[in-house]
Structure formats: structure tokens, C-alpha cells
Write a structure and sequence with these properties.
The protein has one helix and four strands; from the N terminus they run αββββ. The protein is α+β, with helices and mostly antiparallel strands. It has two domains: 40 residues; 50 residues, Seminal Fluid Protein  PDC-109 (Domain B) (Ribbon), CATH 2.10.10. The longest helix is centred in the N-terminal third of the chain and has 36 residues. The protein starts with 7 loop residues before the first helix and ends in a 7-residue tail after the last strand.
């Protein structure tokens, strides 16, 4: 299809609608991230030690743990498992390195 065959007005209106929807989705995402940042600023990051399944109810947004030699930050409330079994709730902050010898 050549450019001359496209109804320019309809194309531009469709493009504008897609851009507006994208901006709306982007604005919503920014608003959610700002809310999360506000909570993190209020709570701060808390080092909780080595991951313990029994402590799961106590972990939440801003919890920092060690697991499998790495340092992990909980990025959502109410994780259901460790970083290996529940990767959506945990963000790797520091990857484990080679053992010192």
C-alpha cells in the first residue's frame, strides 16, 4: 500500500488516539511508581538478614535479604516465597561473586 492510498486524516486520528492512550498508560504507571517511592521513602530499606521462610509475613516493600549469596530487595508487598520461587516480588541488588581464596 502506498502513502497516497491512505486516508491521511483517518491515519492521523488513529495515530493520535494511540499516542493519547499510551500517554494515559504511561501517566498511570508514573503515578503508581511515585506512590511506591513515597512508601519506600517513608519506610526506607530494612535489612532483614538471611531469608527465612518463617519470616515471610514480615517481609514487604523495602525488605532487604540475603539469599543464595546475593542481596535481594523486596519490590512489592506480601511476597509468597523466596527470590527463586517468587521472582516478581524480589529484585537482585548485588549478585554473589566467586568465593575468595
Amino acid at each position: 500500500m502506498k502513502w497516497e492510498n491512505i486516508d491521511a486524516k483517518r491515519f492521523i486520528i488513529g495515530l493520535r488516539d494511540r499516542i493519547e492512550k499510551g500517554e494515559t498508560a504511561l501517566e498511570m504507571r508514573i503515578k503508581n511508581l511515585e506512590a511506591e517511592m513515597k512508601v519506600l521513602k517513608q519506610r526506607g530499606l530494612r535489612y532483614e538478614g538471611v531469608f527465612q521462610k518463617a519470616q515471610l509475613p514480615n517481609y514487604g516493600l523495602g525488605s532487604v535479604i540475603t539469599f543464595s549469596g546475593g542481596l535481594w530487595i523486596c519490590c512489592l508487598e506480601a511476597p509468597k516465597g523466596n527470590p527463586e520461587t517468587d521472582p516478581d516480588h524480589w529484585q537482585l541488588a548485588v549478585k554473589s561473586g566467586r568465593d575468595a581464596r
